[in-house]
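CAD
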Amino acid sequence: QILVLTYPLICNYGVPDFNEKDEHGLPKHFEWLEGISIAALVVGEVCEQPSHWRAKETLSKWMESHGVPGISGIDTRALTKKIRENGSILGRIVYEYPENVKELQFSDPNSRNLVAECSVKKTMVFNEGGSPRICAIDCGLKLNQIKCFVSRGARVELVPWNHNLDESTFDGLFISNGPGDPVVCKDTVTQVQKILKSGKKPIFGICLGHQLLSTAIGCKTYKIKYGNRGYNLPCIHHGTGRCFMTSQNHGFAVDTETLPADWEPLFTNANDNTNEGIIHKDKPYFSVQFHPEHTAGPEDLELLFDVFLDVVKSQGTATTSLRQQLIQRLMYTPKPESLLEKRPRKVLILGSGGLSIGQAGEFDYSGSQAIKAMKEEKIQTVLINPNIATVQTSKGLADKCYFLPLTPEYVEDVIKAERPNGVLLTFGGQTALNCGVELERSGVFEKYNVKILGTPIKSIIETEDRKIFAERVNEIGEKVAPSEAVYSVEEALMAAKRIGYPVMARAAFSLGGLGSGFADNEEELETLAKHALAHSSQLIIDKSLKGWKEVEYEVVRDAFDNCITVCNMENLDPLGIHTGESIVVAPSQTLNNKEYNMLRSTALKVIRHFGVVGECNIQYALNPYSEEYYIIEVNARLSRSSALASKATGYPLAYVAAKLSLGVALPSIKNSVTGVTTACFEPSLDYCVVKIPRWDLAKFIRVSKNIGSSMKSVGEVMAIGRNFEEAFQKALRMVENAVTGFDPYLQKVNNDELKEPTDKRPFVLAAALKANYTVDELHSLTKIDRWFLNKMKNIIEFYKEVEESGSSLSNDQLLHAKRMGFSDKQLAEATKVTELAIRQQRKEAGIIPYVKQIDTVAGEWPAATNYLYLTYNASEYDIEFPGGYTIVVGSGVYRIGSSVEFDWCAVGCLRELRNLGKSTIMINYNPETVSTDYDMCDRLYFEEITFEVVMDIYELEHSEGIILSMGGQLPNNIAMDLHRQQAKVLGTSPESIDSAENRFKFSRMLDRKGILQPRWKELINHESAIQFCHEVGYPCLVRPSYVLSGAAMNVAYSDQDLMTYLTAASQVSKEHPVVISKFLQEAKEIDVDAVAADGEILCMAVSEHVENAGVHSGDATLVTPPQDLNAETLENIKRITRDVAGLLDVTGPFNMQIIAKNNELKVIECNVRVSRSFPFVSKTLNHDFVATATRAIVGLPVEPVEVLHGVGKVGVKVPQFSFSRLAGADVQLGVEMSSTGEVACFGDNRYEAYLKGMMSTGFQIPKKAILLSIGSFK
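Tokens:
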């Protein structure tokens, strides 16, 4: 056989030592005693620099020594789909492309008796003195079958396929797996019939053995349309209805219609309903189609060997039949508390509140999916979430939504009013969990008869409390890293003495590692402990496992104990850096099968022990030089990792978890991606996913740039490629659009930064590789696995080659570069030409990206999925391009200044387009968002938002147009580039966008119309800057043009300030000069959000800032409808808004900031896109601004409406800060934005709304000694 592997990256951990034997003298790591059985191997990419402590040689070397050829660089997904549609097909590998393909000869292995070729020629005995005696018929057996018997004490006699069986020499008969068609093995069937006839000996068959036993009793076999090949195939056991993951590789199945009356099916495949096993109703005969012993695959059903051996031993004395014994072994009786007596009719869902560091947009996505799942089950939903910017708090999702603080008092009020029967606590992060735990402890749920759905609260408390957690894990013989809980600094020092330095200290019950760090000695620990005990009464001291591999699994379990792992992920950064801060790769790249399944089985064991129902995440520390591991933690709730796992695999974790919490069985839920297979399966990936966090530490002065066990990142990106280099470079560009890839020139080489990582470490690595550091040197500094370092080295090596080639890249080099994830811009910089020149060359050479689907099944089943990515490592498209789609560009990575608000706008736009009957495409790469959910649009591209990629998709899809105004600043930045290449940008024209962004053009336009603005000037050198400031008088505002959320803006109060800022600002932007404007003090700031069509206003909202001008609008407290503006001022604001809309000819959304002082209104800026207050005004004024804007953009007539004065309620939007995470940050607010999220509450007046809002951000209202001061004293 020529073997094709679907996963593209093969043999990263090399080939282990053949001479290493186990205690029975059998090869420890291999499945046969000699040789390689396949004819050839076909892979996407073979690893030539494996990295694993067990690796003895590379795959190529090993195959070469056995004379077996292989070929790489093949689009294995395209090949898989071909094989899927045709079944196994004949093929051959050739050196040169033949002149006449038709004349090629293909040899057909099925014309030979393959079983005879594979079988042993003479009898072999293993474990001579063992008992009972098993006779194994060798049709092509795998050694692990023998190991499974021998390790359980049996003696195994291995006999040739056509051996004449003598019953007196054995106690039980085993028929092995093997190649080819069962019809060829007539001799074996005759022998099996002889044993069946005498009826004295138990029989067990696997795979081909199962088909031979079936043939022996008179069944027919047939060829199935799609073979079952892989180690994630779900099989349902008939006696108990439970579902197990199995390994399989076959193309034939047994026809159960032809089973004799005294036999029955034992297992059935949950995907295609083919037979997976048969059993005699009372005699000890059974066989299975899958491999319960397989050494690449799950260990879920290895117990079949135990049952078989028990039956053999008790032959003649057994009281229960084999069938009954199997049912008893596999039976699971659900705990009464995990099943619902009756379905709830109304469910309360707790949201996560304002976005903060460690708890961001992923809970909007999980909550939205939970609401969808409940709606499908016809259950009413009530949501409490003060986060106004989220999709889940929009009309059309939950039946009722309360914008209230997530505090026990408010939640109890809602329960009192709504009387729900059930509550979900695991969909709102730590905020919801902590609130739920408090309500449970104070007996509120019991009082109102509200049942907690899903994972029992006891399990949640057990996984959260370190001490109990360690005890519970030890009960099942697993171990957690040694740690002790302490309550004072003295106790902490004592505990560290017992455990041994270095230690890690962290506060209990905290999110994202708040208040944690490493200590190498007593002084360090003392300062850490003082800091952490301020956050929490309990402090945990752990043994430090810095430098170990960190691996995590996402596990799902239902109330009937069906249990699967959905995704495993490996952190590129070793332990010691919080997973939220690490670069994460899925699936894991450097674990071999033994490690993968050891951790998988442990994960299932742990989740069962805790009784989790729904989704759960387990993190391990794995020793890089042995198979030793510790369990670090278990999160019995949806987390940031589960959002990533969901998007990385295409498996809707949150949706499934919500269904399971209602007591639905996992096998009965459909896989919503393929539409035909079951959700009770483990996704197979045929691509590589890289997640990189985004930090905005530059926004905070005095905050340390080091990253470690406490989370500081504000967002994350996810990139998909067919190899690591491609995905890694994509991800780096996604994090920061100014970066062109793995660029060696961004940072200087610095060993300290390699040892103690900062947010810029990837670029320090790039610089180090460029400076010829070896992989071993870098490994000893960073403890990053050598496999990843080798991959990075590949990029830098090729980068050097590109630079050396001068300005003429050959087409081969260009293709190779694109396959390694280089962008056009990156190549343009390296070869000193323009990006468009590279694009031109690429298109002329026909080098274009291919579109691939994420289908959860690696191409082995047809999938109607719309979940797509681009890759150059391919040779065909997965989809057709009928044209007629409208592209909506999303907001990209969450950062300070661009967060979930823009996701709300993008989703609102997609919804409205769908209502209008238009087909939509979403381009976004943020795994935490609702817009990247598979059911939000017709096609989802998980791709970069850059000119190159958006243009590629636009051209491939023959799209009707692109909407850029819904994703914030990022899409706006590429408007002109797209426009210059004749792409159709819908809505306001890119020239107008440029007129608003470009200070000169905008200012001239205002002057012509007589609209006032603060005095400003654009300056190129320092002298003229000082002169201007003297002219208008300090304070002055210094800023570069084209910025997002006040990046590098500062207020200067003196010449000295000015000089400091200027040096900083000129570094920020080389081709853009600096703008200085007069800074007005004690002025009121007003935000205007509006929608226009062809310059005519359709609707507008005015919000006033509570703080004076000078606090960034993203950090200010907003009130709408305005309370303090007189009618005259409002009229003036309306006039200015109308004028600006007309001048810019706006079609779609825009927003303006205006300063009011002494009855004069001055315009500060105007953005022709949605702003972060759009969701707030839409929900407060009960008018969907985004839907109106969408209709205007696609050119439908819309009637103008007057919604400015609202509907009687007052809304107050309060920013959510995360200063507690950023030690040393200046908490004073200024022109730089520093909030990470926002909440909003409503009331009859602004005071009530403001108080609720403040409480929602976690503000504790003081009980006595309050000083209130408003305005300033003159």
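Confidence is low (pLDDT under 50) at residues 1042-1046.
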